[in-house]
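Work Package 3 (structural annotation) set out to generate three-dimensional models for the target panel prioritized at the project kickoff. During this period the team completed the workflow that converts sequence records into discrete structure tokens, so that structures can be stored uniformly alongside our sequence database. As a representative example, we reproduce one entry of 255 residues exactly as it appears in the project archive.
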Amino acid sequence: MWTAITREVSPALAACELSYIPREPIDVPLARAQHHAYRQALLDHGCTVLCLPAEPGLADSVFVEDVAIVLDEIGILTRPGAASRRAEVASVARALGHYRPLRAIEAPATIDGGDVLRIGRMLYVGESARSNAAGIAQLGELLAVHGYVVEGVTTRGCLHLKSAVTALAEDTVLLQPAWVDRRRFERYRIVEIDPAEPHAANVLRVGDQLIMPASFPRTRQRLLDAGFEVTAVDVSELQKAEGAVTCCSLVFRVD
């Protein structure tokens, strides 16, 4: 059984952190409607969805992926790279603690969940403005006992590693070659995004099914041609906050 932890959109979403895209007006009621449709897609894909209440003072808090890393054996509470986001951790910890034993990344380390790509027992971590070397090292130390291997991956021109590459299956990734060195992922089958859709590499895998933004039809066609089942959801307002589909949930198995 799959469980997804989500959080309602903050009324302060327009004050979100931005790094690589220009600030645009955000329609918060529309963002909430789109988030509701996103949660429905999770339900349709077999998830039990837990939706935490909005945090009015925490603009980016809908992006719950960044504050925790959930593995089969353990949950790791992160220390987000943006100081404004660190207050988001506590409420997600209370929810996640019902499902996993928890450990935490400690200062001076920083790490965002959006930088962590898990494929099997391998965790690739973006060496980004949000995740530092100390964070990557701490994560490796915490997870070594559980048999995971943690490796840093250099990113360029994007916020998180999962802006540049996400897993489609245990042997396949979707990749934006302008933002990450494709040679780091040569052990996998690589599907490249359509060049006309530079932000299309972020897709959410739930079992054997994929959820992706509706704004990338060309890349979606590439995935369909490669044999994947893909559901498109409109997350245009959340994209204005430098978000995407993996950002808005923590999806994990509960047996």
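The chain has one domain: 2-253.
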